Amino acid sequence: MSSTIGSVxxxxxxxxxxxxxxxxxxxxxxxxxxxTVLSFGLHGATGEGPGQFARGDQTAxxxxxxLTGLGILALxxxxxxxxxxxxxxxxxxxxxxxxxxxxxxxxxxxxxPWAMLELHDDETVAVHALQAxxxxxxxxxxxxxxxxxxxx
Length: 152
Description:
Layout: E1 13-15, H1 19-41, H2 55-73, E2 79-82, E3 86-90, E4 95-99, E5 103-107, E6 114-119, E7 124-131, H3 136-150
Antiparallel strand pairs: 1-2, 2-3, 3-4, 5-6, 6-7
Helix pairs in contact: 1-2
């Protein structure tokens, strides 16, 4: 993923968000550890009275922590791949495969959290892989996508 494109006809580039991947990985690990520690704080049941927790409850608590961590890691899913033929966008929810002929412009508006593809039918497609918090990396990605778009 270089910042300059020599020939856009023979190259495929891929961009994934950087900062959110670090934040999500650390957050997911912290949630799993927190739920695990909390599960050990649940005292084992010696009777059937209220407020007593069985070993299964502790295991379920750890399982919930793992599931929550996996949910947080879903934020690392976004990716954009582009070549001379078109662009493939994978966001947290949903994916798009578009030829460059349907794309009117590649936008990254001021105060926008991520880049957008403006389509000829006045629709827009968010590109979550190019996020404003990644600063120069996102700008490089938008410039690369614009170079591919201009090459069509």
